Amino acid sequence: MRTTQIINDNWKFAKTASVPATLPEAWEAVTLPHTYNAVDGQDGGNDYYRGTAAYVRTLVTPKAGSDQEIYLEFRGAAMSAEVYLNGKQLAKHQGGYSTFRVLLNGALRPEGEENLLCVLVDNSDNEEVYPQKADFTFYGGIYRDVVLITVPSTHFALREDGTPGIRITPKADLAKHSADILVETKVEGTADGAKVTISACGQEQTVPVENGSAKALLHVENVHLWDGVSDPYLYTAKAVLMADGKEPDQVSARFGVRSFRIDPSEGFFLNGRSYPLRGVSRHQDRQGAGNALTPAMMQEDMEVIKDIGANTLRLAHYQHAQEFYDLCDENGIIVWAEIPFITKFMPGGRQNTISQMRELITQSYNHPSIICWGLSNEITASSQVTEELMDNHRELNELCHSLDSTRPTAMAHAFMLEKDSPLIPVADIAGYNLYFGWYLGELEQNDRFFDEYHKLFPDRVIGFTEYGADANISFHAEHPVQGDYSEEYQCVYHEHIAKMIEERPYLWATYVWNLFDFAADGRDEGGKHGQNQKGLVEFDHKTRKDAFYLYKALWSSEPFVHICGRRFVNRTGDKTLVRVYSNLSGVTLYDGDVVLARQNNTDCSQEGVYLFEVPLTGEMHLRAEAGEGAQAVSDEILIRHVEQADASYQFGKIGEVVNWFDKITGNPDYYSVHDTLGTLMQNPATGAVVGQIMQKARGSRGDVAKSTEGNKALQQMLAGMKFESLLLKAGGNVISKEMIRNINETLQKVPKNKDGAK
Ligand code: GCB
């Protein structure tokens, strides 16, 4: 029989690339899961350690007969790993998010003796292993479990692509309430005359092993469907191997019976009924821990997902822990799964996209929660659509279909990818990541973008794979504006998008970017270092921002009411806007015992959103009450009138939303896009560059250029704005980020006068 033992303890760790000959007692003692970037990968400056590190421990050769095989299973070693036993290299694995196994036989010392196990991991930059360019920290380390497996030499498959050895393909017949369950197993070792007994849903079949595989088709009547969040019912399939009169091995896996389809105009259908997918994205990290998450932390994340009431998750931008897909299965959450083929196409990385996809599908195939395989994310953000890039995608697409005929392939595109790009139809379905109203452009551009796309391609399935706005809970604004990082602008932004989604049922799935703030060590903005703050929940994974409750009001059936602005205590003016989010049909707002106002949901301009404008006087104890009887709920906050605006609520430089890959640096003695339009216009050389660009903008869309004509006040205001912000405002269809970089390079050739030409 197979035995497994988790060996997370007694490791020694050092940032080195050398394999020691004996146990390095003086090294730091660590217990897995572990990352060496938990601190420096989260503090900003983009200077975290990206290099090689060694994890070393002794491993006593387990008791095993001569017919046993001994494997080490690594469930996550980032980003690349080399495994050495007693100084000999046994394996090399490239990809930081998937399981791989190493056969130790042949390198192990005799039973009971100590071996020296050393794993070199490496998260340094290279041109082969994805991800290399993206908006998150590329943590290094052995950050998931390591397992020692001892198994008779004839056993269910362990060697290829981290396979679970059993593959279950349920096919539901909704009309007949029945299902066919295909259970396939692979067997390794000499298996002459071997048989496998396969059982599931009360059915059982014993089948022969032929050419290393055995499969059975089971038929189930009155099948209990896996039906999303309302009834995520799971079955278990079991396979028992019989060889030489013994039962050397067995495996089992859970599965769910469900059917789905996606309609280009009506969206997603689960088990025959319309089931709009509305949810959030998740990265696998958290403050203090990096990506070395414990099962308890994953469970906590799932509780937050249930609290907000999402029915779908985009597990971005790579393969997540199997435990997390398990949690999604158990809680009925539909999952978009993907590999880290992201931002920048690397011709040398093609093999790696293939191996990461093979592993993702092989290891995650049985999860009913997963409904599509994401080929890439915003791959054109830093690359052109070349034939090579297209071909890589075609190969990946075919690979997915050959490994899995039951799920569509998908891609998430950047806004600057033309709607008619030949890349889009390579995958079966798609989504766009749009940030109009945050990085650039207006909120309404999101609406227009999708309407245009849907009109152009009514037969294509399109979703909203990312949208969001950063918010720091320390920042507040009575009149929130794009780029102020205030909690209030995040509400304004999401209220708009939530409404626009509601009005577009053709959007088959929508994902807030992101449920949680996450580490992006390249970022330094919005009053925080090293974080992307688009989360609806802070990086502690506990503190909910106000916008969290907007979605809870739309998605959750748990009665609640939430008054926004509990951190926005000091307010100026004689009136203040009080936002209340609730999924109940009416809200009464009090100041102490005095009723200020009452609203029914029929009075609201938007579902779940109650807006009260109330006189601001002294210190106010606001309380919102909603629901009756067992459903009665209330929430309270304190606000106060002050004469002077609270300076701590404001982020210094409003309007400078700089994308993580757009940080343009340069020589300060030369002109750059960081100079204002006015400064650039004063110098004949840079003025000519600006003139040309404005001309181009005027020729295509150029709101900025057009609207300045004949309007002196506006021209003055624009002259005071940084050229980069103006270019960003012009919108991605006119001026791409690559162009901004090129413009900057041109400007950097022009020296400033000694007096700075200011
Ligand atoms: C994107 C990326 C995501 C970033 C996000 C952002 O489009 O896909 O990885 O974190 O934008 O916040 O800029």
What does this structure look like?
Helix content is 20%, strand content 33%. The chain is of the alpha+beta class. The strands form 11 sheets. The protein has an 8-stranded parallel beta barrel, surrounded by 4 helices. Helix 1 (295-308) runs parallel beside helix 2 (322-331) and helix 3 runs parallel beside helix 4 (387-403). The model is unreliable at 700-708 (pLDDT under 50). The structure holds (2S,3S,4S,5R)-3,4,5-trihydroxy-6-oxo-oxane-2-carboxylic acid. (2S,3S,4S,5R)-3,4,5-trihydroxy-6-oxo-oxane-2-carboxylic acid is lined by residues 134-135, 317, 377-378, 433, 466, 513, 532, 534, 659-660.
Fold blueprint:
Blueprint lengths: L2 E4 L4 E4 L13 E3 L21 E9 L7 E7 L2 E2 L1 E6 L2 E7 L5 E4 L10 E9 L18 E2 L3 E7 L2 E2 L9 E8 L4 E11 L6 E6 L2 E6 L4 E8 L5 E2 L3 E2 L2 E9 L2 E10 L4 E4 L3 E4 L2 E2 L2 E6 L12 H14 L3 E4 L6 H10 L2 E5 L11 H15 L5 E8 L9 H17 L5 E6 L14 E5 L10 H13 L5 E6 L19 H16 L4 E6 L5 E8 L2 E5 L13 H10 L5 E3 L6 E2 L3 E8 L3 E6 L2 E7 L8 E7 L3 E8 L6 E9 L35 H6 L1 H17 L2 H6 L3 H8 L3 H7 L7 H11 L11
Parallel strand pairs: 26-27, 26-33, 27-28, 28-29, 29-30, 30-31, 31-32, 32-33, 37-43
Antiparallel strand pairs: 1-12, 2-3, 2-4, 4-10, 5-9, 5-12, 6-11, 7-8, 7-10, 13-15, 14-15, 15-18, 16-17, 16-21, 19-20, 21-22, 23-24, 24-25, 34-35, 36-38, 38-41, 39-40, 39-42, 42-43
Helix pairs in contact: 1-2, 3-4, 6-7
The structure holds (2S,3S,4S,5R)-3,4,5-trihydroxy-6-oxo-oxane-2-carboxylic acid.
